[in-house]
Design goal:
Layout lengths: L3 H56 L2 H11 L4 H29 L3 H9 L1 H5 L4 H8 L3 H24 L4 H27 L9 H11 L1 H23 L2 H38 L3 H38 L6 H8 L3 H16 L3 H26 L1 H16 L7 H15 L4
Helix pairs in contact: 1-3, 1-4, 1-7, 1-10, 1-11, 2-6, 2-9, 3-4, 3-9, 6-7, 7-8, 10-11, 10-15, 11-12, 11-13, 11-14, 12-13, 12-14, 12-17, 13-16, 14-16, 15-16
Length: 423
């Protein structure tokens, strides 16, 4: 089932799905931003950011490790699916109860929007079915489910813009994506295997799963918080309007970063081969330096191009009301160099069993980013947040390597990949 041809087909399907979501997501974001304006867009982005973190918390790390569980055969598939889903539903219920209590106690637009989007936490409880398909060489099925979910959600958003619907309808459109994905994979799995018979639900098994997966919550939430901290601090130091303007710029730059991530994932097997099969240390470092150099020059070229066009492309796409986002995009796009360096070096660390160093990057990066945002946002506003984000990416993707002996050679390779021409 997992033949080279099948694996290649899976990879192509998943890259296609992600690329369509990224490109289509930008166009849909433009339509929504122009319709809602900075204030309501800021509220929408803030609520969605909070719920994404809550979804990760409700997963308790199972979203990261479930693929390994299915592939190892340590647990029966049906039992594993049921116990993961039930564990996540329990956590989702607890989170939703807390949100409802907060809504009753402090009723405002923020809590209400988060509580509505909280339905995503329940629907995401069945995401482990996607991992099952991926572990069985059918990742294209999960990719198709996500693709259909995106198309339905995007179509609803465009329809709501066209008919000038109220803010809440866009919350429902976001929820629709996770609902469609759940229904698609759930119905398909039911059609193939039917309803589980016999006792599959076990408190002991849920405890065992939670014990194994829970340490991964820290690293996953830290990585999410690292990328989202600016949104939260802008929200509470400034206002929703500022969040909306900032999110317009970062939506474009982060779409580019996500495409870089797709590229890095596609070369990850080659990175692992380099780590394992290089004939000598010098040959290994020469090849690694070439990868760093090529990635950096591509990112620099894109950053230069975006810097030149950002002053007119932001007003053209989103309207004059978002023109302040131009300066933010000019700064934020330069983080691409350090984002791709971090992603590539992260693959090398994983290939060399140095995962703890990879996690430390985000922990230190989060602390560094929060400190800079608290210092610079009151001084320079949104530009301060952009400077803090860029500086944090430089620290995480470049300077951090200087702190530890095991990563110091990557700091040197990154540096000389830009200034030394390799033969």
């Amino acid at each position: 089932m997992n033949s080279p041809l099948n694996l290649r087909f899976q990879s192509i399907a998943m890259i296609f799905e992600r690329s369509v979501r990224l490109v289509g997501g930008v166009f849909v974001s433009v339509a929504i931003a122009r319709y809602l304006g900075p204030d309501q867009l800021g509220l929408l982005v803030y609520a969605q950011t909070v719920v994404v973190i809550l979804v990760v918390l409700s997963a308790a790390g199972t979203d990261v490790i479930s693929l390994k569980w299915f592939m190892s055969g340590e647990f029966d598939d049906r039992s594993l699916l049921v116990n993961i889903a039930f564990l996540r539903l329990i956590l989702a219920t607890i989170i939703q109860i807390i949100l409802l209590i907060l809504l009753l106690q402090y009723y405002d637009d923020d809590i209400r929007s988060i509580a509505i989007l909280g339905a995503m936490i329940f629907f995401s409880s069945f995401d482990s079915v996607q991992k099952l398909y991926e572990s069985r060489g059918r990742g294209h099925v999960a990719a198709l489910a996500r693709f259909i979910g995106f198309i339905v959600s995007a179509a609803l958003k465009i329809i709501f813009v066209f008919y000038e619907m109220s803010f809440d309808y866009f919350l429902y459109a976001i929820i629709a994506e996770s609902f469609v994905i759940m229904c698609f994979v759930g119905c398909l799995h039911y059609k193939e295997v039917g309803i589980s018979k016999g006792k599959v639900l076990s408190v002991n098994k849920m405890y065992k799963l939670a014990k194994q997966s829970s340490p991964l919550v820290i690293s996953t939430v830290t990585a999410l918080a690292y990328n989202s901290v600016a949104i939260f601090l802008i929200k509470y130091i400034m206002d929703d309007r500022s969040v909306g303007i900032y999110s317009v710029a970062t939506r474009l730059s982060e779409a580019w970063f996500s495409l870089l991530s797709v590229a890095v994932v596609s070369i990850a097997p080659k990175i692992i081969v380099l780590a394992a099969e290089s004939e000598s240390e010098s040959e290994y470092e020469k090849k690694v330096s070439r990868i760093y150099g090529f990635a950096a020059y591509v990112c620099i070229a894109v950053a230069l191009f975006v810097t030149c066009i950002s002053e007119w492309v932001i007003p053209l796409l989103f309207g004059e009301v978002f023109s302040d986002a131009s300066g933010i995009l000019m700064l934020h796009i330069w983080a691409g160099v350090f984002v791709v360096w971090r992603q590539i070096s992260g693959q090398f660390l994983i290939a060399n069993n140095q995962v703890s160093q990879h996690v430390k990057r985000f922990v230190f990066g989060l602390i560094f980013n929060i400190s800079l945002c608290l210092l610079l946002i009151p001084l320079w506003g949104l530009l301060g947040a952009a400077v803090a984000s860029l500086t944090s990416h430089i620290f995480v993707g470049y300077i951090f390597d200087l702190l530890y002996k095991t990563t110091r050679r990557h700091f040197i390779l990154k540096t000389f990949s830009l200034v030394v021409k390799k033969s």
